[in-house]
Design a protein that fits this description.
63 residues, mainly alpha
Length: 63
């Protein structure tokens, strides 16, 4: 079961994917989720460990 932060981040990523946003940066995630960077990174790690998402980390970008 995902945490509240993980679920919120998953909804944001899903919504961005539906609008064909290929890449989203950390600042955009900070703005959309209204969470701090540490919380976002923890939620992303949770989603990746669950096998729900996978990403290639680049400086300043998720993609």
């Amino acid at each position: 079961m995902l945490s509240d932060n993980g679920r919120k981040l998953l909804r944001i990523l899903w919504s961005c994917n539906q609008h064909h946003i290929a890449r989203i940066d950390y600042l955009e995630l900070l703005r959309m989720s209204q969470r701090d960077l540490e919380t976002i990174m923890t939620a992303l790690a949770e989603l990746q460990e669950s096998g729900i998402i996978e990403w290639i980390e680049r400086p300043g970008q998720l993609g």
